Fold:
Amino acid sequence: MANPGYGKRSAPDQRPRAADDFTHLRPRESAIATYLDRLADGTDISVKTLAKHLPYGQCALRTALNRLQAAGHLRRGREHVRGTGSARWITRTWFSRTARDDGWWARFTRGDVPQRERDEHRPPTRSRAFILLAALGRTAPALSLSYADCVSLEPQVTQWFTRGATGPDVLRALTVGLPATVHSPAALVRSRLTTKLPPERVPGPVLRLLECGKCGAPGRPEALPGGTCGPCAGAPGPGRGPSLPPTAVRAHATAVRAVAYHSQERTHA
Structure:
């Protein structure tokens, strides 16, 4: 794992995992993307660390990560969340199982996350809240719930997650100090979810800045198509055109000197 606050960060609103997630990539990039996708957030995914766990050298991994970036699966940058009491910008590497175009990444840097993309041909997946409720009986057998109970209570647990609670937070609130006999598990869970609901979070605006995947230069998303700046992609810099051949440079210099000489002659006259 990376130091706290660093490492891999999963992009939001991704489609559920499927066997064809990375089949559009080259075999090496597909294998690396599959490996990254299954790593937990906060895992160190630097080239040096990945080289210790994958059968590729650092140079090959650096090339592969740049290709994943060009394909829309990865972006590098920095992030600062106002209200944290710190003025530091934290280095981030965002990974998305679902390939994103430059427009999506630009909206992401502004905190304007688009609506969840859904694939109607894939079966729906159970939410984190439903899974927690369905497994509640394993932690506290007295609170075993039916399928209908889980569906009914799912929105309340989702509200807890929206307010920043973690799974252990919810389990602790539901299971600590249970009475000797629980006559109605669903009613007790509903009551605790209501009375112990944490306050709403007031998140500060998110500030994100993308960086070129090759040279690390920061820039606006529109200046980093595919996650690469113009100079690294071979484009001329701002205000610069194609370079002149030496003969043209010498001819231009001669003309400038001639104009300056005649201007000086007229001044003395």
Q: What stands out?
A: Residues 137 and 175 are 10 Å apart (CA to CA). The longest helix spans residues 246-268. The chain has two domains: 8-122+205-231, 128-195.
